[in-house]
Here is the input.
Amino acid sequence: IIGELLLSIDRLIISIFFDSNQLGYYGISSIFFKSIRIIGVAISMMTLPLIVKSFAKKEYNKMLNYSKIQQWLSFGIMGICSIFIGIGQSYFIPHFMPDFKSSISTSYILLTAVSILPLSLYPHILNTIGQQKIYLLAQTIAIGLNILISLAFVYGGLQINSIALASLISIVSYILIIRYLGKKAFNQIIINK
Here is the structure.
């Protein structure tokens, strides 16, 4: 639930502070975000059993290697797909949905955010080693940061692109936090083996 909140708090904020037209523009961008995210989730689910099996066998280096494979494979495929979608929508939307042209820049920001999400590296490891609280802490901090930045942007008179930017900033923060805390937790299990 917290993970979904991290990835949808922006739409909640827009629904509160902006009109339904703005929410619609943002909704178009969100569709592309969600579409790309499915790729990362699928790759992630394919590597999870390998990570769990490595942990059960106390093969911690393999565990980390599978996470790195998942990270870079997801990042690469999601990044390439985001580039194609960005190029496609810069042609498609102005020609076939001209009323939604203002959603293109928002979409670029959200495509960047979703493409870098796999760089978090440690979520499966943390869940596998029983450190879900670290994972949840990183997500909770990112949600709070997203809310604070979004509210600052809204009260500063900025538009929906600023909400997408707040989401991007919060995802970057989440990645940095989970990589730092995840590495510490992972190193701790290696020390204790």
About this structure: DSSP finds eight helices and no strands in the chain. The radius of gyration is 18 Å. The longest helix spans residues 20-56.
